[in-house]
Specification:
It comes from Acidithiobacillus caldus (strain ATCC 51756 / DSM 8584 / KU). Belongs to the carbohydrate kinase PfkB family. The chain is an alpha/beta fold. The chain contains 11 helices and 13 strands. 38% of the residues lie in helices and 21% in strands. The strands form 2 sheets. Strands 5-4-1-8-9-10-11-12-13 form a 9-stranded mixed beta sheet, with helices on both faces. It is globular. It starts with a helix and ends in a 10-residue tail after the last helix.
């Protein structure tokens, strides 16, 4: 990534919600988690989402007060509730998710201010797929933002009932970076007839099919891979004691973006991404309760330079 583009903001688009474990509730949503990690590491990011007029929305706004201006583009919906996902613990840190329909994040609007800023600003667009599950306001806003961005980091999240093949193809087409896990790669392989074989064979076929510049594949404890059209790079996961895997993939994405914008090589960026994901797996929940100690320790351990002070 060039120095000029590394200095340009990341616009993070998508859901913020509550993960409801029954006995506990935690704030989440992949774009929300990624934005919080990036802010804490000193990155310039804009978070574009929508919440209801309810207690979870107030809690989300309260957390975002850690960073000046973080809630500036957080929209409010008078009818739809703040997003909620019912989470069932399965043991060994794994979970089953029930994603509720028709939530505020399905109705993210491209208002006049957002349109003007998109026309005036050069930005990298980070987005997932969950907030785009319905043919409605969020998908229309995404199409507009994607058409104005200089690049797209696509972090898919293929939950049952929350995606359809035609728009998934639209989502993938021309992505600068696609990040997915090994299970999601299997879904893409089947849905788009990418042939047989292991990841080494499927990644080039996927990249060629949709014109994707690079793919980052996470494989849990087996590590990760990166394909850029010419070179396959492998990385080993860190050996850790897992408390909770919720948010690990989001931390990986944030670590990758952060390292690459600092000019790190692919190998180093994978190491940094694994490092942040591992630290999050040692937490209860996707975000640290004490960011003032969490992020400086991460930066020091991985040998990368922080861009700014971490705010409480």
């Amino acid at each position: 990534m060039s120095d000029t583009r590394a200095a340009q903001p990341i616009w993070v688009f998508g859901e913020c919600l509550v993960d409801d474990f029954g006995d506990a509730k935690r704030l989440g949503g992949a774009p929300f988690n990624v934005a919080c990690h990036l802010w804490a590491l000193g990155e310039t990011a804009r978070f574009i989402s929508r919440v209801g007029r309810d207690a979870p929305a107030a809690e989300i706004r309260g957390l975002l007060r850690r960073w000046p201006g973080a809630a500036a583009w957080l929209q409010e919906d008078a009818q739809l509730p703040t997003g909620r996902i019912l989470v069932q613990r399965l043991g060994t840190g794994m979970h089953r998710f029930e994603i509720l329909p028709h939530q505020a994040y399905d109705a993210i609007d491209a208002d006049e201010e957002l349109r003007v800023r998109a026309l005036e600003t050069s930005y990298l667009l980070y987005h997932g797929s969950l907030a785009l599950r319905e043919e409605g306001p969020s998908r229309a806003t995404w199409r507009f933002l994607a058409s104005r961005a200089w690049g797209r980091f696509v972090d898919i999240n293929l939950r049952d009932g929350c995606w359809q093949r035609p728009w998934l193809a639209e989502l993938l087409q021309g992505a600068d970076t696609l990040k997915c896990n090994d299970e999601e790669l299997g879904v893409l392989q089947r849905e788009f007839g990418l042939g047989r074989g292991d990841a080494e064979a499927i990644l080039p076929a996927l990249a060629q099919r949709f014109g994707v510049a690079e793919i980052v594949l996470t494989c849990g404890p087996q590590g990760a891979m990166h394909w850029d059209g010419a070179t396959l790079t492998r990385s080993h996961a860190l050996s850790i004691s897992v408390v909770d895997t919720v948010g690990a993939g989001d931390a990986f994405s944030a670590g990758w973006l952060y390292a690459r914008r600092l000019g790190a090589t692919v190998a180093k960026a994978l190491q940094v991404a694994h490092g942040l994901a591992a630290r999050v797996c040692a937490l209860e929940g996707a975000l640290p309760e004490d960011p003032q100690s969490f992020y400086p320790a991460f930066v020091a351990e991985l040998g990368v330079a922080a861009k700014g002070a971490v705010r409480a």
